[in-house]
Write a structure and sequence with these properties.
The chain is mainly beta. It has one domain. About 10% of the residues lie in helices and about 40% in strands. It contains one helix and five strands, in the order E-E-E-E-H-E. It has one helix spanning about 50-55, and strands spanning about 10-15, 25-30, 35-40, 45-50, 55-60. Strands 4-3-2-1-5 form a five-stranded antiparallel β-sheet, with helices on one face. Strand 3 and strand 4 form a beta hairpin. The longest helix is centred in the C-terminal third of the chain and has 7 residues, at about 50-55.
């Protein structure tokens, strides 16, 4: 299985939409669980990383790290 790298601030699209009608999310926290913020209504959710890897459709915008 492919180990994907995500950064805080990345914008992603999940396969299933949020009840508010949006399916665009922003990665807010990384770890064993990933915290996502809905770009439509601002709701925050936690999702296990394994579940997130299954539900992600694509990354729309990568956060730029100028380190």
């Amino acid at each position: 299985m492919e180990n994907k790298q995500y950064n805080i601030g990345d914008k992603v699209i999940l396969k299933k939409g949020h009840p508010c009608g949006s399916n665009n999310w922003e990665v807010v926290r990384l770890g064993a669980d990933i915290k996502l913020k809905c770009m439509g209504c601002g709701r925050l959710i936690f999702m296990p990383r394994i579940e997130f890897n299954k539900k992600i459709k694509k990354v729309i915008e990568k956060e730029k790290n100028d380190a």
